Amino acid sequence: MIGCIVQARMGSTRLPGKVMLSVADNNPVIFYVIKQLKESELCDKLVVATTCLKEDDEIVEFVKNSGIAFFRGSTEDCLDRYYECAKKFGFSTIVRITCDNPLIDPTLIDDAIKLFNLEKYDYVTNCKPRTFPQGTEVEVFSFNALQIAWNEAKKPSEREHVTPYFYNNPDKFKIFNITNYKNISNLRWTVDRKEDLDFVKAVISKIKKSPILMTDILQLLEREPDLTKINNNYIMDEGYTKSLENDKKS
Description:
Helix 2 (57-65) links the parallel strand 4 and strand 5. The protein has one domain (2-249): Spore Coat Polysaccharide Biosynthesis Protein SpsA, Chain A (Alpha-Beta Complex). By secondary structure, the protein is an alpha/beta fold. Helices cover 40% and strands 16% of the residues.
């Protein structure tokens, strides 16, 4: 079974509670993540994986009311959270999505799954290296690969960010990175700061269709290029960079 596991928690140093912040019509960020993911034709089940912290009860209540499955696990060890979640639901293939990407394109997910199945890869992604917009990251991997990482990963960054063990050990896994026809990784469609949320609000207010595809947003930005100025002051992969610094201290 192909399971899409969305990691979500209220804790965020740069934008606390961001997954439950309102985007439009009183619907929060997580609503749009779920809405986009439901359009995937190849994912068999969608699960939101959060922590056991009381502050994340709000996420669980929202997910339950939306009719979506949930899982609660480790706070900092996201690799363990994914492993235990995938094991509980019996997923043989896992799609990893983070809840700060409300503009995730479901067709990118399905394309990655098709490639994963066709070539029998262990890990397929579109962000190592990046050529797609930030906020459209897709990762697909086998449960067997996840189990190896869960057993062997020791670095804090590998436990926190789930998949670094794969690309840190390319000799152990069959890996493929999907490359866009043009490098547009400078575009920022994820939600990590207030300016990012403002950008997403602008996009959703202007594109009145579902799902919102990457091509729809690119066409919008061609018509209204100034929209990119809303959130173009950023540091790419800031959270992962900090985790790598913590590796040196451990």
